[in-house]
Specification:
- The chain has a domain at 36-103.
- Helix content is 3%, strand content 44%.
- It has one helix at residues 3-6; strands at 36-39, 42-50, 54-67, 74-85, 88-96, 100-103.
- It is rod-shaped and about 125 Å long.
């Protein structure tokens, strides 16, 4: 069976070269999607302030006394446990940099709706 025997069809009317295709008068709507990379750099700088330390003795000191071999001197060692408190204030200063925008890499292929945005 040949195609023209299986389907009824109407021959296409030929157009002259002087007639242009007609465009809809209402226009057409399209949504274009383009992925972009946006960077917002910031520089963080530490800022610390050290206060005045305080020391508090804990318990009684341990004392050892050692006489040298010649008997001409003694060494006395005192050991005291001390609790040292050092107040430190930590801060961070933020300095904004210049933001930038660039078209996303090659993730957008022609004809690919959404070009991978939202993944």
């Amino acid at each position: 069976m040949r195609i023209n025997e299986a389907y009824e069809h109407t021959a296409m009317a030929s157009r002259g070269m002087d007639s242009a295709p007609s465009c809809p008068t209402s226009g057409c709507d399209r949504t274009v999607v383009q992925c972009v990379d946006i960077s917002a750099p910031v520089t963080l700088s530490p800022n610390t302030s050290i206060g005045t330390p305080t020391a508090t003795c804990q318990g009684m000191p341990a004392v050892t006394c050692t006489t040298d071999a010649t008997g001409t001197s003694c060494e006395v060692v005192m050991t005291q446990q001390v609790c040292v408190s050092i107040p430190v204030q930590y801060k961070v200063e933020l300095t904004p940099g210049q933001s930038a925008i660039a078209c996303a890499g090659d993730s957008c292929q022609t004809g690919t709706p959404g070009c991978g945005c939202g993944k």
